[in-house]
Each structure stands twice: as structure tokens, then as C-alpha cells.
Amino acid sequence: MKQLTGLQQYAIVTANYWAFTLTDGALRMLVVFHFHQLGYTTLEIAFLFLFYEFFGILTNLYGGWLGARFGLRLTLWAGTLLQVGALLMLIPVAEGWPRWWSVAYVMLAQAISGIAKDLNKMSAKSAIKTVVPETPGDPNRGEAQLFKWVAILTGSKNALKGVGFFLGGVLLATIGFNAAVAAMAAGLFLAFLVTLVLPGEIGRMKEKPAFTALFSKSKGINVLSTARFFLFGARDVWFVVALPVFLQTTLGWRYWEAGGFMGLWVIGYGIVQGSAPALRRSWGQSAPPGVSAVQFWSAVLTAIPALIAVALWREAAQPGVAIVVGLAAFGVVFAMNSSIHSYMVLAYTDAESVSLNVGFYYMANAAGRLVGTLLSGALFLVGGLQACLWASCLLVGLSCLSSLRLPAPLRQPGLCP
Hints:
Layout lengths: L5 H32 L4 H7 L1 H21 L1 H18 L9 H33 L7 H36 L2 H18 L24 H21 L2 H8 L5 H20 L1 H7 L8 H23 L5 H29 L6 H50 L14
Helix pairs in contact: 1-4, 1-5, 1-6, 1-7, 2-14, 3-4, 3-5, 3-14, 4-5, 4-7, 5-14, 6-10, 6-13, 8-13, 8-14, 10-13, 12-13, 12-14
């Protein structure tokens, strides 16, 4: 059989990642709206995602080691099939089940889904580093190309996650929760079949890494991981549970309207993420981003949730307008942050140990999401969406402060950050 080119491998990995992302986004909306419809509080709904995020932390840590030891194809397969299994588990969930049993059962299914998601994401993002050709004679050109490919993968993934949000709202309103998860399981299994042609050596280290290699020894990776923890906690503290419930209960939006709006937000967020290299070129930044770019965009982001919270506190005549406009601004700036972060983690590592470092980095990402999700449900009960927004402002500020300790990436000689 003819060996696949780097571009063909990238296309197959990306296609699988896209299909997975559709189911992941749709499943989140299905769970939030279905269980809120059954009378669950926002804190109880947040607990449904507890294991999803917790096992994501462990998966990123151990998944990077597994990818380095056995290859990224294996971790990609495992992630896809585990998600199929998690979706199949949810088919029998019924309204008549005791509440404690429903919560425990769905938490278990979400744990499997969390493992699946982070295996899939770690595999897809690590694979880019192994298939993008290096340019020893012109490091800046190679880094610019890497930034472009990372931005395309990450941006397109988030755009499709937005489609998944909308899809989840539509499926719940049309065919119901149980039929929706069954249909998504069937579609994702078809996407798995496409990956069977991938070579087994993608991302596999020549020397098997020791178990102690799980933890990064790079200052750049460690500091960036800390900043990532606070950054994604700042997003999820108001976006995951509090916002969809606020749209439905306070603003009176229907399921498909709330799911559609959040879907459009994530699509726009993904488009900005994918366009980050072009946007930087449009204002004269042709070189790949450096440390100062991380610091600048996180500083800008700090102000946005605070401004939205002030607008709600002052009882703006149209709270829906404040949310829509504020969320749009948050999405643009957060997308630039995320795109630059996703590139920087690869700039701090090499192709040989990429899955270890990316796994460690996304472990911090999952930990931030876990904290943000729990705070989203708890703070909304205590102080509504305003409390969640102030917490978001604080967490972004901590992300910005953490980034002040970032060293310059070694492969950016002569770059202005």
C-alpha cells in the first residue's frame, strides 16, 4: 500500500477530529437542556460534567505518555471508539429513573466521553507537529507554517463544535434525547473507519519514554500550562452551565434558540481562531507570535467579562443585547488567545516529545475547565450570571499574570515577540 503523505495524514486526522467535535458539542447541549427540562438545578447539571472534566485531566497526562510510547494512531482510535461507547450508554436514559441513579449513570457516561475527547484532541494536535515539514534553513518560515496549520485545525474544530451546539438543540426538539445519541454514535463510528489507513508510527518516540516523563521539565510548557488553566476556567465559569440556563430562564429563549446562538458564537470563535495568522498579517505581524502576544491578548480579555457584568448590574434596558454584544467581543479576543496558546505549546516542544508535552499542557486545560464548570453551576445559584462574570474576570487576570514568566521559544531566533 502506498504510504500516505504528511498532508493526507493531516486531512484524515482532521476529518476524524471534526466528526468527533460535532458529537461532543451536540452532546453537551443535549445534556444541559434535557436535564434542566427535567428540573435539575444548575449545580446538579454541573456535577453531570464533573467526571467529564476530571477524567480529561488524567487522560491528557497519561494519554501523552501512551501516544509517545505506542503511537498517536492508537490513542486516536481509542478516543473515537470510547466516545461511540459513551453515546450508546446514554440511549436507555429515561425520565422515570430515580434522580440519584440518573446523575450517577450520566456521570459515568460523561467520564468515558471526557477520556475520549481528550485522547482524540491530544492525538490530533500532536499529529500536526509530526507532519508539518521542518525548515532548518529558515526556522521562522517553518514556525509560521506550523502556526497556520494549528490555527486551521483548532479554528475549524471550534466552528464545528458550534454547529454541534445547534445540532444538539435541534435534535432534542425534534427526535428527543435517546434517538439523538444513537444517531450520533452511528455517525462517529463511520468516521472511525476512515482512520484505519493511518500509519502506526505517527508520534511514536524512538526510545520508549519512562513513566517519570509524564511531567514536563520545560519552564515554557509549565508556565504556559498555568496560564491555560486560568484562561479556560475563565471561559467555562460562565459559558458552560450559567449562560445557557440564563438564556432560557431569564431571557425566555427556547432550546433551539439558545443552542443556535451558542452554536453561532462557537462557529464565529472558530473562524477567528482559524484566521488568526491572517489577522496578524493584516496589522503587519508577519512573524509567528511570541511571548508578548500571549500577554497582550490576555490583558485585553480581562476587561470584557467585567464590562458585561457592569452592564447587567446597572440593569441595562436590554440585557439580551449586553449579553450578545459582550459575548461577541469575548469570543473574538478569547479566540486570539486560544490560537496563540495552541501554537506556543508546539513552539516550546520538539517532534520527538510532542505528545508528552501536549498531553501535559491539555491536562492543565482540562483542570481549568473542571474548576470553571463547577464554579459555573455554584456561582449561578448564589449570584446569577453576574457572579460568574466577575469570577471570569479574576481568572483571566490570573492567566495574564502567569504569562509574565514565559520564556522565549528557542526556535524563534531574532523574532520580535
